[in-house]
Amino acid sequence: MGNKPSGIGEVTRALVDHAPLLAPEHRFILIRNADHCEALSKADNVTEIPLHNPANGPGTLWFLPSIIDLDGVDLFHAPFNILPRGLTMKTVATVHDIMWLTHPKWCNPRPYGLIERHFYGHGINRALNEASAIATVSEATKQAIIEHRPHVAQRLHVTLSGVSRRFRKVAVDPAVLRDIGLKHDQNFILTAGQFAPYKNHEGAIEGFAKAFANRPDIALVMVQRRTSGIDKLVELARRLGVEDRVHFTGPVEFDTLLQLYSGALALLHPSLCEGFGNPVAEAMACGCPVITSNVSAMPEVAGGAALLVDPRACDDIARALRQVAEDSQLASRMRTKGLKRTEELSWESFARKNVEIYTKLLA
User: Fold this and answer.
1) What pTM was estimated for this model as a whole?
2) How distant, in Å, are the alpha carbons of 35, 92, 93, 279, 320 from that of 81?
């Protein structure tokens, strides 16, 4: 576990926080990224081993048993899609999605993506073929795996992801919005997530431009973890005549993210595929109405609290955006439903389901 914020990081954090407490009869060994200097857990039944190799790196994938001493380990859980080679104990692999196997260009269309495709394809295939149990963070991912590899169905377990209680509605500081580039009293739509083709940020900009071509009082804020290739999005916004109303922030501090979720007219998350879709749950937990895709895991995560759209249909996205922006009663109902839905997305419940898998395998 390292310092880079991600959906996989949230899953790992939940296991670290809850699993040792839920299973005090077991001893847990946490392999910690050496760049993370502080201890991950204070539980009495936890030991930590610092490792300089990243979780999703070649050293971990191919040489982990040679790098650290795993003697005496009865079960190994890899919560990061790939399963390291050479493990002789029982194993659990959390497979968040299989896009690297089914739609690799959605993940990284650049030349370097060919290398990543080989790496992740190798690691995910080993997880599917060799893991004693395969955990998925949504029913949607489970079904996608079954369609791709029907013979692994008996080893699949759904451990639905949660949302941290850190995500909550907060007061918005106007100075924070000004720093992003928003004008005084300008409302905004929010899109959050790494810049990758499957996130469909082009569709978000096109839908925004169609919905609010004549609404200079509404802007689009795009929070992206990756910024390479952003020039294409800037050019798209320019061609659509909304360049001055589309603001790209890059990564932001957690407090800023809370304010953006809390202050947005809506979160627009028109992703083509997700293992879970953390921004959907995070936004709802902050009282933000959500517009998201009607495919993959998004309807499952939203649980009836969001407006669902065809992510490939610009008109459909625009229609939903106008509905939320122009119907305050609809937006209010969506906020209430969203908050209620996130109460059901518990990280403790997620960890408990994983501990149940451990117990079954160790028995």
Assistant:
1) 0.94
2) 21, 10, 7, 20, 33
